[in-house]
Amino acid sequence: MAKTAAPMTAEERKVIFASSLGTVFEWYDFYLYGSLAAIIAKQFFAGLDAGSAFIFALLAFAAGFIVRPFGALVFGRLGDLIGRKYTFLVTILLMGGATFIVGILPTYNTIGVAAPVILIVLRMLQGLALGGEYGGAATYVAEHAPDGKRGAYTAWIQTTATLGLFLSLLVILFTRELTGPNFEVWGWRVPFLLSIVLLGISVYIRLSMNESPAFQKMKAEGKTSKAPLTEAFGQWKNLKIVILALFGLVAGQAVVWYTGQFYALFFLTQVLKVDAKTANLLI
């Protein structure tokens, strides 16, 4: 007779909820830039023609992706050494702080070329934070999951990341309604400034989290990794899995996902000249 799967415990639900909610907020912060790229181009790359300004705004968006692997390496190693809880706090503070600063950052017309330079630095900080957050959240949930449930439990991280996009679009739509024609002047800053509220909620929740039993056991026994990067990538059998996962699974999925979300938004607003409110609703 087949065994009946044990129901999810209250502690497991708390772990999934806390990790997933933090992921929603971090992806909200990350997606805001892509959703508002056309306006950011006008505000921070005003010294260029419209087409070039938009391209440079997208390149600044890409800067966040370029550093994400380094964020995973840095914060992944930190998590292996000191635990996930405090690493989570660092990544959420880094992401929330960088996003909030974008909301108060003077534009090109105010401080000149320093504006896009600072913007790119902030985008890179966001990428570092997200690189550490995403894999760390999945690892944290996996360490709490019982045998046979790791895939089901960690799937919540991927699912709720999509909610970050929806949340960013909803906040943008709501802010457009409130600010009207002023949205492109100063209203676009509001979604970035609201990240400070999400940051406060995330920090409060994550302070209540505990390290996983698996990590606590390894730490008590002195078995925590001393050289996580060497252990993960220094052996060909491990490196081979990473390469296959990167180019065989993740790269293609990422191209389809981001093309579907952000190029579609660009095509609607810049090529078909659909108004931004309608385009956000369609996306």
Descriptive account of the structure:
The structure is a single chain. This protein has 283 residues and is an all-alpha fold. It is 82% helix and 0% strand. Helix 1 crosses helix 8 and helix 4 runs antiparallel to helix 5. The radius of gyration is 20 Å and the shape is globular. The N and C termini lie far apart (47 Å).
Succession of helices and strands: HHHHHHHHHHHHHHH
Supply the helix-strand structural class: mainly alpha
Helix content: over 70%
Question: How many discrete domains?
Answer: 2
Compact summary:
Helix content is 82%, strand content 0%. It is mainly alpha-helical. The N and C termini lie far apart (47 Å).
SSE order and pairing:
Layout: H1 10-35, H2 37-44, H3 50-66, H4 68-82, H5 84-104, H6 108-111, H7 114-144, H8 150-179, H9 183-187, H10 189-193, H11 195-207, H12 213-220, H13 228-233, H14 236-271, H15 276-282
List keywords for this structure.
82% helix; 2 domains; Growth Hormone, Chain: A; 0% strand; single chain; mainly alpha; 283 residues
